[in-house]
Amino acid sequence: MSHSLAFPPVARSRLPGRLIWRFQRDRLGVIASLAREHGDLVQLPMPGRELFIVSHPELIRQVLEAAPGRFTKGRGLENAALLLGKGLLTSEGSLHARQRRRMQPAFHRQQIQRYAGQMVQLADAHVSEWQDGQTVDVAAEMMHLTRAIVARCLFDWSPEGFDDAIDQALHTLVSSFGVPGAMLLPLWVVERGWLPGTQGLADARASLDALVYRMIAERRNDPAGREDLLTMLVQARDDRAGDPGMDDGQLRDEIMTLFLAGHETTANALAWTLYLLGEHPESLARLLAELDRVLPDRLPTAADLGALVYTRQVLSEAMRLYPPAWVVGRRASVDVALGGCGIPRGATLLMSQWVVHRDPRWYASPERFQPERWADASTAERPKYAYFPFGGGPRRCIGEAFAWMEGSLLLATILRRWRPRLVPGHPVEPEPLITLRPRHGIRMRLALRRPMTGRGAVPARREPELAEDLHEGPL
């Protein structure tokens, strides 16, 4: 490494190890405070490794768009391989490039728009089960809904009868990454369940594997007439190389990746969006007015997305304040220069959407929920990576267009019928696991806006009763 390069500032604490202890228990708070106190590039000393927090959009661009071979995925994604194997999210080099080419056709715009009708039908059926005045945990409800959508749209598979098993297995695996030390220790330590809170990982993974391999076997045996993503993956070939296609192990890894990433992130984005709208009635009123104008007497379709302008702004703002992917990690494969500083080979770089999205240099009143900021001309003036909810560079989320469409259509479907409000006194706290989940869920009281027909139908409640009911204590 060149001696002309400076060393980044190093974060210190008065008591040895206290900063590390705090980081394990309050990741969001620590990385935000380090960025405020030390600037855009700061080292967080860790035993046996070098860890840097990168918080400027231009530096983030240099890392995420770096030439091949300079950076690989960080320890967090390496450990995610415990669940995801060598899927698109965790694979590297030529394997990642080949899998990206194999899977890209499944995510072309024309292809994903075919899923819109199924998304809306499943969402409408789900919310038709709700009752006027009912209190629900919208975080859990959105997990169930988006899981059903991914299963149906991408894999033409219905998870009924397996809900409890899937829930328990996913909860065990995802929660393990919130255990202090789990994201920083080697994979083999986490996998053996030696840390408190990581027991049962092997059984959880085996439970999910059994379901996924069953799906693969059924599709290989009977692919006729199927046009879902799983069939496309089974038949996918890389035209560059006389490709025999994916074996069952690689299919398993890609299915697990798409299943988790395809429902976990969107569910969290929708839950945080409903929470923010419930806390900001003026924004909710404007969104409802748009829905009533665009969708006066029908459910949304993909053709309506261009007219749901404020709906898209609301989602954009919710993912700014509560980004489902709250941090991106990379490991330096060689000595690199970044921001005039030297980063040694093997160092880990953390780039946090949570920090950058709340930076006052890029957003006026950054802690304020203000969807209108996405209609402002200043949007085009912000640096490219001042907003990166789907990552960036060659590893940018392949399902981004699917997620935007799903988020907009589901939000429109839900709010056509329901007006949610946070239950008074319910604690809302972000929990940074693989994704940014609400630690205690988000309990909201529902008020019916439109009469429903069929199963779950109840009489519409008059709007004047809403304010009184929503200020009652928890059920």
Features:
single chain; 475 residues; alpha+beta; 5-stranded mixed sheet; 3-stranded antiparallel sheet; 12 strands
Head-to-tail CA distance between termini:
62 Å
Backbone CA Rg: 23 Å
User: At the fourth CATH level, what is the homologous superfamily?
Assistant: Cytochrome P450
| Average pLDDT | 84
Structure class: alpha+beta
Domains (count): 1
Number of DSSP strand runs: 12
> Helicity range of the residues?
40-55%
> What is the makeup of the main sheet?
5 strands, mixed
In the CATH hierarchy, the architecture is Orthogonal Bundle
Query: What's the shape?
Result: globular
**Poorly predicted runs of 5 or more residues:** 453-475
- The name of the CATH topology is Cytochrome p450
The number of helical runs is 19
% residues in beta strands:
5-15%
CATH class: Mainly Alpha
Widest β-sheet, arrangement of strands: 1-2-8-5-3
Q: How do you describe this structure in short?
A:
The protein is of the alpha+beta class and 475 residues long.
Description:
The chain is α+β, with helices and mostly antiparallel strands. It contains 19 helices and twelve strands. It has a five-stranded mixed beta sheet with strand order 1-2-8-5-3, sandwiched between helices. The protein has a three-stranded antiparallel beta sheet with strand order 4-12-9. The chain has a two-stranded antiparallel sheet with strand order 6-7. The protein starts with 17 loop residues before the first helix and ends in a 5-residue tail after the last helix.
